[in-house]
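Throughout this chapter, every protein is written as a compact record of paired, labelled lines. The reader may check this reading against the record printed directly beneath this paragraph:
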Amino acid sequence: MEQNKSIIYVNFAPYDNAGRILDYLKEQFPIVILFSFDFHRLNKRSQSNYLKIFQNGRKIQETKLFKLPTPEAILFISLPFITVLIGIQMLWHILKLKRRLGQFDIYLTVNAFTAWIGNILRSLGIVQRTIFWVWDYYPPGFPNWNIRLARWTYWKFDKISSISSDSTIFLNKRLIELRQQIGVLSTKKNYPIVPIGTNIGSISFAKKHIIGHLGVLKRSQGLDLLFDNLETLTRRIPDLKIEIIGSGPDENHFKSRVKSSQQVKFFGFVKNDNSVEKIIRNWSLGVATYIPDTSNAAYWTDPSKIKAYISQGVPVITTSITPFSQEIKKSGAGAVIDYFDRQQFINAVITILKKQKQFKQRAFLLAQEYFYQKLYPKLFTNLG
């Protein structure tokens, strides 16, 4: 990677520094061009689309990009317009930057459509090599026709980008096996796996009872399970506190469930990663109780929230929908429960809170196996 001087990196908020990937790129490349877009409202003013340029780790330029004002209710209907707008803005700004900075060495993205854009840029001689780091699979079968159509369209880009990029890398084995089963990828070829990394922080053994949640506030994340059982848990643990970091389409739904409660704190979208880690460090446990559903994208991905929890020595309660749940179970860094068994959830909370020290130590040990500086060099090894 020493010969590579510049990289274009494209992602979507709030995941552009998930697992400290942006920090790693700034450590490794003298020039980093970041395009960050968002779909959901992540705070009251809404997170902006932006272009940032970093030189030797320092931000030297920030340009706010145009964002189509879209109410959440018609988000999926507006997706074609949003997508076209993203593509046009990327091409416009990258062409301008090429005149100033010359050809770019690497183009990295985690999204199928923006990977397709990267391959166009490569064919135009604007970037030398492209990397598609596959984070997701969105099952086409979904009850709502508009979401089903959006997912079908995305899958078309996914198939093209998976075979056309110079290097295609996956978060986990499940994403590879799916594409091999349906004939998109060869079963005879080995594909690299690079999961989302951890950023090793510090562990707190303060005697507190705080349950936390980090991430975009959507019902599919399973946060209702916590609120469904909050009254029961409070009777068992009178000093119990709940802290929620993040915002999203169902934020008002969750807030309405605890309007009169003094024990639940909503931080909203917290932009600074160090601030997020400082809050998480004080938690007794973190929840990632995804709803088991065949159309839930969490079944295929590597949840960044779990990596953020264990990075600070915070044990996890999750469901078996995510592949990483097996690591949680095997390491004893938390509990894997049946989402529909309320008693299992309550018992897991009580057990972890009673034995916080042991669970925290196991979570912290697991985090060290996934330290981002050990994982991310593999993103670039197949490029030569």
